[in-house]
Amino acid sequence: MDITLIKTFVEVANTGSFVAACDRLFVTQSAVSLRIQRLEDSLGHPLFVRSKAGAVLTPEGKQFERYALSLLKIWEEAKQQIAVPEGYSRAISLGAQYSLWPRLGFRWMDALQAEMPELSVHCELGMSDRIMRFLVEGVIQAALLYTPQLRPGLIAEPALDDELILVASYPNATLDLKDAFVSVDWGPEFTHALAIALPHLTDSGRSMALGSLAMEYIVNRRAAAYLPARSARRYLDAGKLHLVADAPRFPYPSWVIWRDDMDAKLSDVARRTLAGVVQDAAKEQEILVSPIEAMGDFTQQGLQFFPDKLGALSECLRVIKPGGQAVFCTARGLEENPLMQAQVAAFGRHFGEETTGAIRAVCGFPDPDEMRSVFEGAGFGQVAVEKVILDLEAEDGSAFVNGLMMATPVADRIAAMNQTERTALHNDILKGFGNCYDGFALRFPHSANVVVASRSV
Q1: Does the pLDDT at position 188 exceed 90?
Q2: Could you give the CA distance from residue 232 to residue 215 in angstroms, rounded to a whole number?
């Protein structure tokens, strides 16, 4: 069977769209359609149900998917084993997003070969979508990512906690950054959270798609941007970057994604060596670089995304001076937040319920009693949790939704829609706001829990 047909099938299944698949495969839409047709003819069954909303696997398609993934894995394993250099008996292929490899990847590579000298290590770097595709196809066995996607046959585990902090190349910068702010693409979750916390920064005249290059750009110009705290530390310590006062921080943990069919011995060595590398990196690159002199450390729309909430809060407590306070704000339940409700309903209808997870996660830590328990468990005293409702307004509701559609976890699918499909989705999102939309303006509540906790003197 032609492996190209299998790869095309997997891409259409993963993206849910013939258009998106052709963009990833760098071929025309007609080529994708022809390949799928040839595969369906060979199997004697339709594999997709086509519609204006995209392509959904048929029962036969779902059954074939696991065999397709197995075929790709066997094919990639065969290519890798044939390519094992002379003098080596084993091989492993790793992947990472660009900004993660310098901090963790090089050390992991060294640790692997120190543990297994007979092991040949191959590395692939790229954007998240490219690395995820390599994982699914079996090109790589493990990868370091900031924005993992749940796929069959893959296991996601937390690697290293980090957060995005607002820094400027000049001292005493305030949140009124105007033309100094540079927008960096840290993923749709960050873009969405930033639009809620600091909406005036969403229309930056400068933007970068590759975050790993943003640091040098900011340092050498009068500019400001959100950057990973661990990467920014050495520049902060050297006085080349400065924290922007009162700016919210956003969690940005890294993950390691494993194929679940890795060789047991190789998997054990890879996990053990990575754990050591992560432990060393955590000691060398503390997220919060110095004790906080102000009374509070404020984070908006963030705590719910940390895989280890207790650990994150314990680290926060460590750097707050005695008598200081921490203030955290996290969204309450989905049913109390029309903005999230409207997106979940519309995206579920157009793309399937499986695409709504990232939006639901924003409201993933709504229980005030659970929040109080976690803060107390981390060692905070005088923990107070208060329900707060902000009344938000957009004078042009239609324009607001247009911007929202480009800053969501399904932005790639929206981009692949034709104009008729995008208009239908746009109207469905507006409809989801219910009485909050009067035909012109949007006025809706944002319901959140605000936690104020102190460090004992």
Answers
A1: no
A2: 8
Structural domains in the chain, CATH included, are 1-70 (1.10.10.10), 291-457 (3.40.50.150)
The pLDDT of residue 398? 85
Which residue shows structure tokens 């680290």? 315
In whole angstroms, what is the distance from residue 334 CA to residue 344 CA?
9
For residue 330, the SS3 value is strand
Asked whether the whole model's pTM tops 0.70, one would answer: no
Instruction: Round to whole Å and give the CA distance between 298 and 354.
Output: 32
What is the spatial distance between Cα 414 and Cα 144, in angstroms, rounded to a whole number?
Answer: 26
Q: Which long-range contacts (CB under 8 A, 24 or more apart) does 230-238 make?
A: 230/103, 230/160, 230/162, 230/281, 230/285, 230/286, 230/287, 231/99, 231/103, 231/285, 232/165, 232/167, 233/285, 233/286, 233/289, 235/167, 236/167, 236/289, 237/289
Q: Is 60 exceeded by the pLDDT of residue 288?
A: no
The amino acid that residue 400 corresponds to is F
DSSP structure string for 194-260: HHHH-GGGTT-SEEES-GGGHHHHHHTSS-EEEEEHHHHHHHHHTTSSEEPTT--BEE--EEEEEET
